[in-house]
Write a structure and sequence with these properties.
The protein is α/β, with parallel strands linked by helices. It folds into two domains: about 200 residues, TIM Barrel, CATH 3.20.20.70; about 60 residues, no CATH class. The protein has 13 helices and ten strands. Helix 3 packs parallel to helix 4. It is globular, with a radius of gyration of 19 Å.
């Protein structure tokens, strides 16, 4: 395949593995890159900038293909050393960064000086246009279907992507609800130059998470996720387990406060789920795309299948539909 994304990033297929807390390790990133996509290490999964430097080197030992690093900027009670993480990325020689969360502007000069291609994840066209003005090279549009944080506009990709394509000039990635060949073809038709997947890559053989989590994703459907933290305007889509339902029950009370759910939403519990396989140990991230996931292939099997089936859809099904 050839799109603006494959040309810019130097990859075989226009398929990116998005940043995933506790999942985006060297094993995951290298497997995706070796399969022809772009794998991403999640910086904040590493406990320190020094640990991130070691993880980047570990990934280099696993692949000779392009890979990148995700750096998500969030507001936390105890500020993280984001500038130190960014410096490690720049000094490591990594040439692709995915930023997400808050405004990446304070880090753009350093990334550009290091010759880094910046992909910024946005949930609205207005934020995508701002990121483009800041010099971001790729905009990853995160639709309402996505796992994690879909923003507060509730705009699904069937509308968000063509709106973005009509206004944003740099290459676009479709993120949220992407899981098979039909998703890939649809994303390209809607104006994207490639796709970003998270939940789908969790259900692969190389994903460094417990088999119980992978099987739960396969068993799930498009109704198996839910939203929390909407009251706090920090909406997050997660797997619908007993913890998620308890959080929603508390949030439904008019007088509820964040303090009442703080322990339930603690991010460290995500990793307990991923490592132990106890699906009720805490909240964990998964998207509506569970409805499209029916197996646990290798990353290579997944990407090869997506692209070959996409070609079949375009050359056979769509060609017949438009034949005179």
């Amino acid at each position: 395949m050839r799109t603006r994304i494959t040309e810019l990033l130097g990859i075989k297929y226009p398929i990116v593995q998005g940043g995933m807390m506790w999942v985006g390790l060297a094993e995951m990133a290298s497997a995706v890159s070796n399969a022809g996509g772009l794998g991403l290490i999640t910086a904040l999964t590493q406990p320190s900038p020094e640990a991130l430097a070691k993880e980047i080197e570990r990934c280099r030992e696993m692949t000779d293909k392009p890979f990148g690093v995700n750096l998500t900027f969030t507001v936390r009670p105890k500020p993280l050393p984001y500038h130190e993480y960014a410096a490690v990325i720049a000094e490591s020689g990594v040439k692709i960064v995915e930023t997400a969360g808050n405004n990446p502007e304070p880090f753009m000069a350093g990334f550009k000086k290091a010759g880094i291609i910046v992909i910024h994840k946005c949930t609205s066209v207005r934020h995508g246009l701002k990121a483009e003005r800041l010099g971001c090279d790729v905009i990853s549009m995160d639709g309402f279907e996505c796992a994690g944080h879909p923003g507060e506009d509730d705009t699904p990709n069937f509308v968000l992507l063509p709106c973005a394509a009509a206004q944003i000039k740099v290459p676009l990635l479709a993120s949220g609800g992407v899981g098979n060949a039909r998703s890939l073809v649809a994303a390209l038709a809607l104006g994207a130059d490639g796709v970003n997947m998270g939940t789908r890559f969790m259900a692969t053989k190389e994903a460094p998470i417990h088999e119980n989590v992978k099987q739960a994703i396969v068993a799930g459907d498009e109704r198996s996720s839910t939203h929390i933290l909407r009251k706090m305007r920090n909406t997050s889509r997660i797997y619908k387990n007993s913890v998620a339902l308890k959080i929603r029950e508390i949030e439904a009370r008019p007088d509820s406060t964040f303090q009442e759910i703080a322990d339930l939403v603690a991010g460290v519990k995500n990793n307990v789920v991923y490592q132990t396989g106890d699906l009720e140990a805490g909240t964990w991230t998964a998207g509506m795309v569970m409805g499209l996931i029916h197996d646990i292939p290798t990353c290579k099997e997944l990407l090869d299948r997506m692209v070959s089936e996409a070609q079949e859809i375009v050359n056979s099904q769509l060609a017949k539909s438009f034949a005179a």
